[in-house]
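re: that chain from earlier
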Amino acid sequence: MVSPDLAPSWDVDNIPRPVSALSASLVSRDWEHASHRHRKAQLLYSLRGVLKCEVDGGVWIVPPHCAVWIPGGLEHSVRGSGETHCYCLFVEPAAVAGLPQACCTISVSPLLRELLLKAAGFPQLYPTQGREARLIGTLLDELCEAPVEDLHLPMPQDRRLRQLAQLLLADPSCKATLGDWAKRIGLSERSMSRLLIQQVGMSFGRWRRQLHIILALQRLTRGDSVQSVALELGYESASGFVTMFRKALGKPPARYLFERMATAEPAGEAASVPGIVLRS
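^ sequence. v structure.
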């Protein structure tokens, strides 16, 4: 058992190894590791419970079979709800060429998962030669090759656009026009569209679709039906929602979740999808 800061008494930045891994079982009901940063990059992989990671300019989710990668030096905060079991990997930025250079959600293959779980059992100062070192090398190779998932909701800095995000979260099924949304936050339609492109790099339609994907993953993973999720998000039929989901993630919801639930967890573990945290 470790404290909810996800980095116990280790001074992770000064451990003389290219990779340090740990398993964290957290039982705090609603814990939060406040905004912080460290020199080494970090990978967060959740086996049980709800993890929510926010960095400057975005919210990141970790569906089953995925993890969030946080480059070294990037300020971030993490929240957990309920009993949480996750794995943390701290990586020297120069450990190997090809590591992600930006925050991203990556798909964790069964091999990468098993390597991560194995590395978490190594002593802090594992041998720099031999079996442990070879396994760490393979882990880094797999990490560099892990595909990136488009599961990022970029968050604007503008106060009015943040208000828009809160309104969309409160009523994701609302079918108001672009002009109506702009009027609610005190902007013209043209100004709102321009600000969204400048600050999140997306049109309003794509940004709202990304929000719907995140909300859908949260609800589907807790067991809600495709039909109920479609209605909650304002789609007139399940088929319309499935079409949107397939365009965004390449697969219909049932197949997307089945493939992750089937291979993401060791026996007896339950996967979960984090929700969204917005701060004013």
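Residues 265-280 have pLDDT under 50 and may be disordered.
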